[in-house]
C-alpha cells in the first residue's frame, strides 16, 4: 500500500487504511496527527528494492519524524539512522536500530555528543569542518577508540529547492568546499585514531528534479577517484537524502527507482558501500494533521476558515510558504466549494495554512485534514501561546494507537520552576 492508497474516501468519509478519521475524532480531541504504518512500510521497501543492485545501507533521517513508533517500525524493516544530535542517537538506539547502522551528521557536534557516539561504536561520523575533525581525533584518542569518518563535501550545486532547505551551495553552512577536500583528507590521515572511510554529500531537501543529483554524484565520483589516487581507501559513499514528495496533485517528482538507477550508473564502478538517507520521502505523505473548524468568519473581502490547529502544530506553511492540500474529512462528490483563507488560532498573522484556497464548503465543527504532514510536522511543533502539542496516532489496518499523548495543562505549566525568591 502506498501513501496515496492509504488515504481515501469510502462512503463520503476519509479513511486511513481501514479506519475512518471521523471515528477516531469521536475519541480524541483535535488537532491530532495520524500516520499510516503501512504507507511508511511501503515507502521504505521501495528504497530497499530500488537500491538492491548495490551494497546499500538505508539510514532513515530521524529529523523528519522522530516518534519512537515510527523509528521502531523502520528498525524492524532493517533501517539504519541518520542522526544530527545526541537525542536522536538515543532515540535510534532505544528503537533498536543498531549502532553500527547509525551515521552521525550535523555541523555542531559537541564533545558530549562525540564521546557518546564513540562509546556506542557508531558506523560513521559525517564531519563538516576542520575543527570538528580535530575534536573527534582528540576525544577518540582519549577514549582509545577509532573514529570511522567521512567528510561532508559541499559540491556547490544548486538544488533548485526552497532557500531555507538547500544545503549544497557554496554559501551554505554545511560541509567542506569541494576544492579543499583533498587537503582535509590529507590532514585527517595524519591525525591519531581517525579511520578515513567515506565521502558524504547532501545538497538539500524536497528536490523535485534529478539533475542536481546527477551533477553532485558526478563531482563525488571524481573526488573519490582523486582521493584513492592520493593513497586513501574510500569504501563508503553517503549520497544523502532529499528526494521530494508530492504536496500538490500531479507534481512531477522523480521516482525512487530513477534516483537509485542514477546512483548505480554514476557510482557502482567505484565499488563502495552506498548510504542513502531518506526522511521526507519515507514519512511525508504517510501522515495528516486532523483539525476542527472553530469558526467560519466572513470578512469584507474574504472568508476565513479558522481551525483549532495552528502554526505551533505545523509550522511549514508559515516558515517555508509550503503548500499542503487541505480536504474536508466528510466529503461528497456533489459538495459545493468555497474559497477561504485557512488560518489557525495563534496570535500571529503568519498563522496561515493557505490563502484563497478553494475546498468543499465547511461549517463550524467540520473536520478537515491537512495532507502530507508526516515529515517536519509534529517534530517541529511547539507550545507557543501555551497551546498543547497535538496528539499523535498510528494506524495499522483496522487498529489504531496513540503513539504520543497530549500533555495536560497542569503537566506543561508545572514544568516551569519558580525561583525561591518569588515564593
What does this protein structure show overall?
The chain has two domains: 3-36 and 284-413, Lyase, Ornithine Decarboxylase, Chain A, domain 1 (Beta Barrel), CATH 2.40.37; 105-278, TIM Barrel. 28% of the residues lie in helices and 26% in strands. It has helices spanning 3-6, 21-25, 37-50, 68-76, 86-94, 111-120, 130-143, 181-190, 211-229, 256-267, 280-283, 316-320, 409-413; strands at residues 7-10, 13-16, 19-20, 32-36, 56-61, 80-83, 102-104, 124-127, 147-154, 176-177, 194-200, 236-238, 273-276, 287-298, 303-307, 326-328, 337-343, 352-360, 367-370, 391-396, 399-404. The strands form three sheets. Strands 4, 14, 15, 16, 17, 18, 19, 20 and 21 form a nine-stranded mixed sheet that branches. An eight-stranded parallel beta barrel has the order 5-6-7-8-9-11-12-13, surrounded by four helices. The protein has a three-stranded antiparallel sheet with strand order 1-2-3.
Topology:
Blueprint (H helix, E strand, L loop, with lengths): L2 H4 E4 L2 E4 L2 E2 H5 L6 E5 H14 L5 E6 L6 H9 L3 E4 L2 H9 L7 E3 L6 H10 L3 E4 L2 H14 L3 E8 L21 E2 L3 H10 L3 E7 L10 H19 L6 E3 L17 H12 L5 E4 L3 H4 L3 E12 L4 E5 L8 H5 L5 E3 L8 E7 L8 E9 L6 E4 L20 E6 L2 E6 L4 H5 L10
Parallel strand pairs: 4-20, 5-6, 5-13, 6-7, 7-8, 8-9, 9-10, 9-11, 11-12, 12-13, 15-17
Antiparallel strand pairs: 1-2, 2-3, 4-14, 14-15, 14-19, 16-19, 17-18, 20-21
Helix pairs in contact: 3-10, 6-7, 9-10
CATH superfamily of the largest domain: Alanine racemase
Cα-atom Rg, whole angstroms?
A: 23 Å
Largest sheet: 9 strands, mixed
Can you tell me the CATH topology of the largest domain? TIM Barrel
Number of strands: 21
What is the helix content? 25-40%
Unreliable residue runs: 161-173
The CATH architecture of the largest domain can be given as Alpha-Beta Barrel
CATH class of the largest domain: Alpha Beta
The secondary structure category is alpha/beta
Global morphology: globular
Percentage beta strand:
25-35%
Q: Give the integer mean of the pLDDT values.
A: 93
**Number of separate helices:** 13
Any idea how many domains?
2
